[in-house]
Amino acid sequence: MSSTEPARRRIPPSRIVRAGEILELVRRGDANTTGQLADQLGIARSTVNDRLELLLASGMLTLDGPTAVGSRGRPASTLSFNPRSGVTLAAQLGISGVRTAVTDLSGEILASRMTDIDVTSGAVPVLGVVIEDFGRLLDQLGVETAKVHGIGVGMPARIELATNAPGADWSGEAVQDVLAGWLAVPVFVDHDVNLLAFGEHCARTDEPETLISVKVGTVIGCGIVVNGKVVQGVSKLAGEIGHTRVGGSQEPCSCGNVGCLNAVASGAALAKQLRARGLDAPNARAVAALARSGDVEAGHAVRMAGRDLGEVLASVVNLLNPGVISLWGYLAEAEEQLIAGIRESIARSAQSGPAGDVRIEPATMGADAGLYGAAMVVVEHALSPSAVDAYLLTLQSA
């Protein structure tokens, strides 16, 4: 990395192998001294020390010691992972705006900004704005691009992009090509709900086997994490619950069908309903604000939306038996009414066992959940043992 000197003594590539495993053990808190690392990996201390020399020179590890007593009675320096040794770039694209951020290697947001965009213009011009914002944030922090380990981008679902930006090229490949052309680092692109779910999984300490993360904003969608892995589906469209039919509704949906959950219970749908009744509700955020302020009509509308959402989620609960359903988005800000409606329907329509075990709660990371998920996808790749070994090799070659 640009802020540290590479190791002065060149170590052959064969003596870099397993350095990534050492970093992994320290980062996960499974070992923090040379002796513990040698015991965990079943290798000699001298071998560990060779790898530590590189990891310390890179800045990825630091020494905090001596603070402990080693197995041979001598003080043992304690090793710590240094998340500020590098950064990620994260972006969360919406239909009308994009939030960008620079995070450290723990996913902590160091700086962020929000910019209005027009997705109908396509990936190239919009991503030009994203790149400019990334550059401004890096300059603000005084961080050089050499410290960037990767870029993570969350995008609206394919159906929403096709509806709101017909004819514009918003494929994941197009986004990757533009960003990789700007900066030669790994670029990860996924649906925003998948990154929300992954971020929620990473942020939690209880580690539920199955987690559902539901976006309840202008549109509705969900991400699914099972055993730490995001479920994509064969067409990478898993979680499109916003286009599930709701019984008794003939409301037209932007996808071309009628009665979709999005058409009756999304933030956009509720705003339309409340405006028809004379309320000042231009968007989903305004709907949530009205509900929180005690407006009876808005509170009732959000609770009814929760019931419709709960009817759809009841099938998900029966199928996947999740431990947690986390909620994110503008409507989640009116959590009292929304969660009450969801619970009513799940209690009524799902099997009592799964319904009784699932926890329904706001997202742990709040508004930052999507950016955190995008950053953590980069982190999990960049700090994998093989990626760390390759990175250290590039430092040796510099």
UniProtKB/TrEMBL annotation:
<dbReference type="Pfam" id="PF09339">
    <property type="entry name" value="HTH_IclR"/>
</dbReference>
<dbReference type="InterPro" id="IPR036388">
    <property type="entry name" value="WH-like_DNA-bd_sf"/>
</dbReference>
<dbReference type="InterPro" id="IPR036390">
    <property type="entry name" value="WH_DNA-bd_sf"/>
</dbReference>
<comment type="similarity">
    <text>Belongs to the ROK (NagC/XylR) family.</text>
</comment>
<protein>
    <submittedName>
        <fullName>ROK family protein</fullName>
    </submittedName>
</protein>
<dbReference type="InterPro" id="IPR005471">
    <property type="entry name" value="Tscrpt_reg_IclR_N"/>
</dbReference>
<dbReference type="InterPro" id="IPR043129">
    <property type="entry name" value="ATPase_NBD"/>
</dbReference>
<feature type="domain" description="HTH iclR-type">
    <location>
        <begin position="17"/>
        <end position="64"/>
    </location>
</feature>
<dbReference type="InterPro" id="IPR000600">
    <property type="entry name" value="ROK"/>
</dbReference>
<dbReference type="Pfam" id="PF00480">
    <property type="entry name" value="ROK"/>
</dbReference>
